[in-house]
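Q: What structure does this chain adopt?
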Amino acid sequence: MSTLPSKELEVFPNPKPSRDYTIRIESPEFTCLCPKTGQPDFAIIELEYIPDELCVELK
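A:
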């Protein structure tokens, strides 16, 4: 039995909220199902952001 992933992001307080810095995340092994065909799709996801009060937890 498989479980569905959570649709909510987990966050934690930014340790340096007064400082501007960039967080870059790359996931070269992202897999998903095509909503049209139901076949597996493969992709690279790149995320870049400057955190304010919160940072996104990586899983």
